[in-house]
Specification:
The protein is mainly α and 332 residues long. The chain has 2 domains: 27-68; 102-331, MetI-like fold, CATH 1.10.3720.10. It has helices spanning 27-67, 72-77, 101-132, 135-147, 153-175, 184-208, 212-220, 225-236, 238-253, 257-262, 280-287, 297-331, and strands spanning 10-13, 19-22, 81-82, 97-98. The strands form 2 sheets. A two-stranded antiparallel sheet has the order 1-2. The N and C termini lie far apart (60 Å). Residues 1-6 have low confidence and may be disordered.
Length: 332
Amino acid sequence: MKTSQCNPLTPQHGPGGGQRYVTPGPRVSRVVVERGIMFILIACSTVAVFTTVGIVVSLLLEAIRFFKSVPVSDFLFGLVWSPQTAIRPDQIGSSGSFGAVPLLAGTFLISAIAMSIATPVGLFSAIFLAEYATPRIRAIVKPALEILAGIPTVVYGFFAALVVAPLLRNTGEAVGFDISSESALAAGLVMGVMIIPFVSSLSDDVITAVPQNLREGSYGLGATKSETIRNIILPAALPGIVGSLLLGTSRAIGETMIVVMAAGLSARLTANPFESVTTITVQIVTLLTGDQEFDSPKTLSAFALGLLLFLVTLILNVIALQVVKKYRVKYD
């Protein structure tokens, strides 16, 4: 059997187990395909980057317009938030107060309450599912936890306003505490329940992905299961766990509906979880709802709040990355 020297034949196994001869395609076509795929990947990455840059630039430009009317120091360090400004110059109360400290305090208070619930419950449930649960129990418990992530936030808000808040108020009255009908505690507790599946699901995947030889080596040295989890598995899975906690924190900071329905709209500078507070996202929605003029400080303050929220989230990301990087060096 003679073959052409220009198109060498390559033997390959056919469907029936025998061999068939095929002629390799030109190398130029493969190079074109690879370049086309590379172009598509670069284009997708560029869209993501340009979208982020566009959001930041739009917030920054409108925030600069706001800071021409309100000093930056008054916005960042002011202790009173009352953006109601008069339409006419002769109207009473023509100058509003734009201190963002009460909004930051309310945001951090509710987020801290939510993460104090979501972190231990989510992390411990992930450890149980990954290390202790049988396949049958895991097949039941894991989908049940993930169902919580699919519930709309407005449903959580109804639950917080109609069930949790009255329960807390009645319990407080029984033990002698004065708990408001709209409190940071009610919003934080329900928000923590909402964040549990985010922390649990991501942490479970990260813990399961830890190489099995690390576990076997620990057991071979005489360590118990709990010692292996504490000293080997959790340090190895720390970057993913920190990522899940950061995602949960960002979710708590950006939540709006639960806060509106359970914590109210009062911008108070307080650390008491029994009182009504508000957050940055709630005020952004309030300022941009309805027919608004985009040349007044009241409306432009929403963009300044958005920029402030972006910077807070960015700082949290940087801190989390530094913590993970430091621990990785120690672990390696």
